[in-house]
Automatic annotation (TrEMBL):
InterPro entries: OmpR/PhoB-type_DNA-bd, P-loop_NTPase, Sig_transdc_resp-reg_C-effctor, TPR-like_helical_dom_sf, WH-like_DNA-bd_sf. It comes from the Bacteria. This is Winged helix-turn-helix domain-containing protein. The keyword DNA-binding applies.
Length: 939
């Protein structure tokens, strides 16, 4: 009967073998018959009844039997791995083999060398048994580099241990290595499973049994070491952790007596035997959130590949798509890339579905309860796996483990002792416990940075948290945890101005998960409200640097509600929280513009406290709030008061902060000539990094660079504006997320749109949208949506003012966005925008808002020509007063068109030529090109 070939496989029907690249795979009789039936009729749909008749003739079977065997076949074939698909389910009809199948010629020695080799082995000449490795039913995913490295290491080291937590795939890797070593050891590769042993004394007997050597149970060594003495073999000692000392003694004794023997061991902790070389097996890599966008790219990550394969094998309807990619990646990350946890989770997808699985992940140990029936009992569920590990711990290690579950991110030994130590658990015991847990692979250790960090895997932490809750210690440990992180945040701020901000964040940014956990506890019914308020305030600087403004706004609001009820009153905490609320409510969505009461209370508290830094911080917050609400006159007023609260009016930080906000106020009021010297002074003031403490953590090079770029464009230096905006954008890279959003949304992007460079504007807008979405910045997402509407209208050829469906004013982020929109599209000018200009609340955009309003009135016929001309003249005068040459050109162009249509061509030409002639650069920008064309027409 000829063999059938498909993909990398050959189905040898004569010898009932399935081979992959010449290597025989273990396949049960039923599974073989099923695969044969499918491959003999590729492309056809075979009904369940037809397949059952072929595989189970004359037998009545359960409905699920066929599905179980189909699932097993898919696992063996790697169905779903790297996009491969072999067996398809056709709902309501049956199954179909969907890859091409080739019938091989009868001479297998020519076509399939592996088959020829197999056929040469006859019952009269049986092969010498060279291993006892168990058959592999599944492909190993993501471990090829490790397997190769360990194989090479075994050539030079005689004792290699694979160490890692339970469920990480140590046995799988060891078997891969062992199979690859078959050709290197003439006397074979022998697998010794120590998992079933409860008595360490039986470890030598397990080795003897694997080698088929008869020994005396009382003293096995004499009979065992004799045959081993001259052997050249590899022994795999699997699951050593519960008999660790006996396994270590066996390894040392065998290696001394048998110089040709090598040993590969797997264990939760190192054997600590003589000559041991330890490899700590890491988790399967999963994509970080920002990479979870492309199916092909994410499928290359082993964790995703494993989930997709196992889920596809358990659910006919599952396929990895763009729609479910984010959820799959999230699951893989939450499960810490642990192969066993991923397999168990994928096994529940048929009953819970992907979304249901993700939603119920917190119920992990109740959820992930279905494993392979043939697996070790402790590998059937995560609960059993961790119960097994927990039983092997000392009592101190058990206490330390459950208390460590309070940490949500990496922690140092200093933090562990500060939080965990108590009267019954001294600091030395905590350190010993953490070190012991790390040795047993229950605590991961990271030595890559300046400080040694420890971390519980998510699965282990969830298990330990349940133990902590049951112990009655949860409240005590949570309180110590919150106090510690308040103290730690206060101490870490001291070195912030001594380090580059990226390095500071790398060291301390990890604390944010613990801050969240501390606040959740503190404001819970079992928590401590004062501690919650203190922790909220202590974390503000870290929040600003990380750009977590939208998220933290609700945290500040919660703390503000609580601080009012504290006795005795906490004026310092209240002021810090009010300052934070002032700032956050101008940089996040859903702001409340009624500032009066909060404004007055902030000033009252600032006067009460004898703290210069807090007073200056309060003034900053009021400036930021006034700026966010578009009240630039208030910005100037508060900015001038800042120096009054400094011990020395010439103190650099006070001058820096005051001048910065004065520069911003003057620019937005249209007083550009007054703003420019202030910009220069801010940029050159010797305040070091101290500005971070007061001005929202945006470097002065970014904030002033944006202002300079805008001013240059307004004053006609169109090309210089692009260069300065790009420099500010570059300065914002890697500083904090808010800085880059500002540089793009208020600098580079509007300048590109003003210049008519739609393609470049599109690229900048894509960047802004991706960045604001990644960092959950609702405020800047609103700006991005508005920019997108303007750009889409331009690209689609929508005439200004016609069919431009912008978001309603009340849906915008605030007045600043409204003002900006009025400069980008005539149809975006609103009555509120005109009212702000007429009332003197905003000036920088005033000439353009007035011009656009007049254009709209002419087009709609709601205003007489004379009235529109008067508005144009007012706009022209305002632009000239501001030295805003670019706005002057736009208004001159509109007025020249009006005069042309009235037959006043000479006046039109004179006006426009005079303005156009003052430009020395940027002649290719859209406004200048249009003006040049109109001048040529008029002449």
């Amino acid at each position: 009967m000829p063999a059938l070939a498909f993909g990398p496989f050959v189905l040898d029907r004569s010898h009932k073998q399935l081979l992959e690249a010449g290597r025989p795979l273990h396949l049960g009789g039923r599974a073989f018959d099923l695969l044969a039936a499918l491959t003999e009729r590729p492309g056809e749909v075979l009904s369940r009844q037809a397949l059952e008749a072929r595989v189970w003739p004359h037998t009545i079977v359960e409905e699920t039997s066929l599905r179980v065997h189909i699932s097993a076949l898919r696992k063996i074939l790697g169905d779903g791995v790297a996009g491969a698909r072999y067996i398809a389910n056709v709902p309501g009809r049956g199954y179909s083999f969907v890859v091409p199948v080739t019938v091989l010629a009868p001479a297998p020695e020519a076509a399939v060398p592996a088959l020829a080799a197999a056929a040469a082995v006859t019952p009269a000449n049986p092969p010498r048994r060279t291993h006892n490795l168990p058959a592999r039913l599944n492909h190993t995913i993501g471990r090829s580099a490790v397997t190769q490295a360990l194989g090479e290491r075994l050539l030079t080291r005689r004792l290699v241990s694979i160490v890692g937590p339970g469920g990480m795939g140590k046995t799988t890797v060891a078997l891969d290595v062992a199979e690859a070593q078959l050709g290197h050891h003439p006397d074979g590769v022998w697998f010794v499973d120590l998992a079933p042993l409860s008595d360490p004394a039986r470890v030598p007997l397990a080795l003897a049994l694997a080698l088929q050597i008869s020994v005396c149970a009382r003293d096995p060594w004499e009979a065992l070491l004799g045959p081993l003495g001259n052997s050249r073999m590899l022994i795999v000692l699997d699951n050593c952790e519960h008999v660790i000392e006996a396994a270590a003694r066996l390894a040392e004794r065998v290696l001394r007596a048998a110089p040709g023997v090598h040993i590969l061991a797997t264990s939760r902790e190192a054997l600590e035997a003589e000559g041991e070389w330890v490899h700590r097996l890491s988790a399967l890599e999963a994509p970080v959130p920002e990479d979870a966008t492309d199916v092909a790219q994410c499928r290359a990550f082993p964790a995703v590949q494993l989930f997709a394969e196992r889920a596809g094998a358990n659910s006919d309807g599952f396929a990895l798509t763009e729609a479910n990619l984010g959820v799959v990646c999230h699951l893989c990350r939450q499960l810490d890339g642990m192969p066993l946890a991923i397999e168990l989770a994928a096994g529940r997808i048929d009953t819970l579905g992907l979304q249901g699985l993700a939603a119920r992940l917190d119920e992990m140990f109740a959820l992930l309860t279905r494993g392979r029936r043939t697996a070790l009992p402790r590998h059937v569920t995560l609960q059993a796996l961790l119960d097994w590990s927990h039983a092997l711990l000392t009592e101190v290690e058990r206490v330390v483990l459950r208390r460590l579950s309070v940490f949500r991110s990496s922690f140092t030994l200093e933090s562990a002792t500060a939080v965990l130590a108590s009267e019954d658990l001294p600091a030395t015991a905590v350190v010993e416990g953490v070190i012991g847990l790390a040795a047993k692979s229950l605590v991961a250790v990271d030595v890559s940075g300046e400080a040694v960090l420890h971390r519980l895997l998510y699965t282990t932490r969830t298990y330990a948290a349940d133990k902590l809750q049951r112990s009655g210690e949860a409240g005590q440990i949570a309180a110590a945890h919150a106090r510690h992180f308040e103290d730690l945040l206060t101490r870490t701020l001291r070195d912030r101005d001594m380090l580059p901000i990226a390095e500071w964040l790398q060291r301390h940014g990890r604390m944010m998960d613990d801050v969240r956990a501390g606040l959740d506890w503190a404001f819970s019914p079992q928590g401590d409200t004062l501690q919650g308020v203190r922790l909220t305030a202590a974390a503000l600087d870290l929040v600003y640097e990380l750009g977590l403004l939208d998220e933290y706004r609700s945290r500040v609001d919660t703390a503000m509600e609580a601080v009012a009820s504290l006795q005795p009153p906490q004026a310092g905490l209240e002021l810090r929280l009010r300052a934070a609320r002032n700032f956050l409510h101008t940089q996040t969505t859903g702001r409340d513009y009624s500032r009066g009461a909060n404004f007055a209370r902030t000033l009252e508290l600032a006067d009460q406290l004898d703290s210069v830094p807090q007073r200056i911080e309060a003034m900053f917050s009021l400036c930021a709030n006034a700026f966010g609400t578009g009240d630039y006159r208030d910005v100037a007023e508060v900015a001038m008061r800042i120096k009054q609260h400094a011990p020395d009016p010439n103190e650099p930080v006070a001058v820096l902060l005051s001048d910065r906000f004065l520069a911003l106020s003057y620019h937005y009021l249209g007083r550009h000539e007054e703003a420019r010297p202030l910009v220069d002074r801010v940029l050159h003031y010797p305040a070091g990094n101290a500005y971070r403490e007061y001005i929202g953590h945006i470097p002065k090079t970014v904030s002033m660079g944006i202002l300079m770029a805008r001013t240059l464009w307004l004053q006609g230096a169109c090309d210089q504006a692009v260069a300065v905006a790009a420099l500010a954008e570059a300065e914002a890279e890697g500083v904090n997320p808010l800085a880059l959003s500002q540089a793009l949304a208020m600098g580079s992007l509007p300048i590109a749109l003003w210049r008519g460079e739609n393609e470049r504007a599109g690229a900048l807008l894509d960047r802004l949208q991706a960045h604001a979405t990644r960092h959950s910045q609702g405020y800047w997402q609103s700006w991005a949506r508005s920019y997108r509407q303007v750009l889409d209208a331009r690209v689609n050829g929508v005439a200004p003012g016609l069919g431009l469906a912008l978001s309603p004013v009340e849906m915008l982020s605030g007045p600043a966005e409204l003002d900006m929109l009025g400069t980008l599209a005539v149809g975006a000018v609103s009555p509120l925008g005109v009212e702000r200009v007429d009332g003197g609340m905003v000036g920088w955009c005033g000439p353009e808002i007035l011009r656009a309003d007049a254009e709209n009135a002419l087009r709609d016929g709601t205003q007489a020509v004379a009235a529109a001309e008067a508005t144009f003249m007012r706009s022209l005068a305002m632009a000239r007063a501001q030295n805003a040459l670019s706005w002057e050109l736009r208004t001159a162009t509109s007025l020249a068109r009006l005069w042309r249509d009235q037959g006043r061509r000479k006046e039109a030409s004179s006006l426009l030529t005079g303005v156009y002639g003052r430009f020395e650069e940027g002649l290719a920008t859209a406004d200048l090109v249009a003006a040049r064309a109109l001048v040529d027409e008029l002449n």
